[in-house]
Amino acid sequence: MLKALRDPSEKVLAWLLLTPAFLLIALIVVYPVVKLIYNSFFDLRLSGGANLGQFVGWLNYQDALKDADFWHATQNTLWITLITVPGALLVGLGLALLANLPFQRKWPVRLALLLPWALPLSFCGLIFAWFFNTDYGIVNDVLRRLGQHETTMWLLQPNWAFAAICLTIIWKTSSFMALILLAGLQMIPRSLYEAAEVDGATRWQQFWQITLPLLVPSIVVALIFRTLTALQTFDIPYTMTKGGPGNSTETLAMLIHKTTIDYLDLGYGSTLAVFMFLISMAVTAVYLRRVGQTA
């Protein structure tokens, strides 16, 4: 054994080099997930009760499947994902194409792409909550100047509040999508476009036959990261509406926060987090399968 450590083979050396990474992953990824799943099988209501710490098996999962708040929050989360991910992709693609144009000075354009992404999520939520404020918000002020006499209560009506949240998320996340797509655009050889121009292809044909097909791997990567963060949406809805009016804009992450922090029910909150983890893993598996098909 000592001789192998002094003069390791390639296989032994590989394991020695990978061991610290495996230990780090086990510490910061595997252990929290295992602990989360473990806690979901126990009664961990810190607010009181004689059954604290008692093993309850699948009871928390059964309660979750019967919980109308869980299904409502999951539905809101899925709707936010289905609306904001394609929206951010389309806006981000437009911004990436714009930033990829042959400007003499490209850094101001690319700096402008970074600004929304660099702002903290909660700060964006507060800014847009002010924009959509019923009394002194910019949006209502512009609408009044355009001739609309009725005041729209953006954050006080469920449908309008949901729309305002989705618009905010798209504005915030489209720059992230644009940066990834911009990197993909710069990997496309210029010679392909020159050859297409010689063959008489229009700009629109070049986009559909060259740009978009070669950009698919970057699009898939951007969608993976954006979808996972969309499924965990918390900051912007929380700062804009606190889940209101009522619980009409409450997401699954907000319900987990309310269950664990406000109600001090760590067991049931862990169960809800396990469901979020399973949904995220299912979506990731679908994307990775798509990556394997395009590879």
In CATH's first tier, which class applies? Mainly Alpha
Using only CA atoms, what is the Rg? 24 Å
Mean pLDDT: 87
Distance between the termini: 41 Å
Shape category? flat
Q: How much strand?
A: under 5%
Main sheet attributes: strand count, strand direction, barrel closure? none
CATH architecture classification name? Orthogonal Bundle
Total beta strands: 0
Describe this structure in words.
With 295 residues, the chain is mainly α. The chain has a single domain (46-294), classed as MetI-like fold (Orthogonal Bundle). It is built from 13 helices and no strands. The chain has helices at 2-6, 10-39, 59-66, 68-99, 107-118, 121-131, 138-145, 158-186, 190-198, 203-231, 235-241, 252-262, 266-294. The longest helix is centred in the N-terminal third of the chain and has 32 residues, at 68-99. The model has no long low-confidence stretch (mean pLDDT 87).
List the helices and strands and how they pair.
Elements: H1 2-6, H2 10-39, H3 59-66, H4 68-99, H5 107-118, H6 121-131, H7 138-145, H8 158-186, H9 190-198, H10 203-231, H11 235-241, H12 252-262, H13 266-294
Helix pairs in contact: 2-13, 3-13, 4-8, 4-10, 4-12, 5-8, 6-8, 6-11, 8-10, 8-11, 10-13, 12-13
